[in-house]
Amino acid sequence: MTLHSDTPSAGQLRTATGCPFGASPAVAAPQRDATDRGQLLLRLARSGRDAVSYRIGAERNVLLNHPDHAQHVLGSNRDNYSKDTGANRYFRTEVADGILTADGARWRWHRTLLTPAFRDRQRLAATAREAIAALIARFDSAADTGSEVNLSAAIAEVTLSITTRALFGMNHQPFIEHCAALGSVLDDAGSLLPGAAAGVGPRDALYRQIRDAVSASATEDHGPALSALTGDPTHAGEALHQQMVTLLLAGYETTANSLTWAWILLMQHPDIYGEWQHLLDTDHDRAADLTKALFDETLRLYPSAWLLGRRALADDHVGGIDIPAGAAVTISPFLLHRHPQFWDDAESFRPQRFLTGGTRPTHRYAYIPFGAGHRYCIGSSYAHDEAAMILTALGARYTFQSAHAADARPDHKFVLRAPDPFGVIVRRRS
């Protein structure tokens, strides 16, 4: 549910300067990277250095790609780094100004206010069971007719349903179109020029729907998050709606992307898929362990929050390079989770890493799919519980098949997107 980013629009990248080890040549982005931020950062990371300094126009940028560096910026020296990044300014202006973009005392108050809403796991479980039952009815119909299903959209709808009902006590249907439209605006954030306002239309439409839904539910069960917000005088009117939009987008979209990737990885690895389904049939305890490991390994390879952006408030020195005040600092879980010093066979899907006795790094900042430090994702336990329920229910009942799985590639947008649409054939298991 964390959506942090502060990467360059690669088309704006001019020259990489201030190289970390003095005599090293500058790193420049080739033209082929101009529309793919992921490829740009992979290229910088593969330069053989864990700290790379470069410029976007006149702005100094630093990519840090070592767990020690992440711990310094997100943990031990966190007070020197704010969230006043380009991506967060864009999110605050064009989408919503809530817990995601807040800093300092304002963020701490949001966190304190909302944390209890994410502890009601019984409510989450009951809500998820209802939403999954509706999804199963749709998949049963598809299995009977042999028709293709857009897995990305189906999973996104069920996670949106769970988020709106569990947190706000609301029906998700009115929000589907508007959330998708605003998500598309976020996809374009990296390529927009400063001052662009492409999000105004979709944003205003979603806000109108939020206002109408809050008014209509005045006498109903609001859900723990909405109850907390409406009971807080600092969240009256527009502030309430902005916080709700933040929680909606961060709460459903990241989990949906991760679950779509989990199914894609299973289809790419039929041996693991078969072993997991066998355990679902025969050994619930071991199946639960493997389900969690499957999801954790998916988050390693394809963390939805693939970028964590910060801005230096004062001069610093990390990884052999000077970071001047005002520099934009990027830490990428997508890259950290592939660091060859910490991950063996890093590009391979190996859920056993996360089982008891599995080999994985001991450095706690080597694996940070939900961020790290004091801003660790408020909804991480929610996401794990929700994912486990959806994976288990669908995995026990169906086998998905797709001709597109082998060629699936991530789309490095504001969040790390799975292919959409992603068509699958649903086979009911005997």
From TrEMBL:
InterPro entries recorded: Cyt_P450 (IPR001128), Cyt_P450_CS (IPR017972), Cyt_P450_E_grp-I (IPR002401), Cyt_P450_sf (IPR036396), Cytochrome_P450_monoxygenase (IPR050121)
| Keyword terms, alphabetized | Heme, Iron, Metal-binding, Monooxygenase, Oxidoreductase
Provide the residue span(s) of the region labelled Disordered: 1-28
Record's compositionally biased regions (Polar residues): 1-15
Q: What GO molecular-function term can you cite, just one? A: heme binding
The residues the record assigns to binding heme are C377
Q: Does the keyword Metal-binding apply?
A: yes
Q: Which domain of life is it from?
A: Bacteria
Q: Which cofactor does it need?
A: heme
Q: So what family is this one in?
A: Belongs to the cytochrome P450 family.
The protein's name: Cytochrome P450
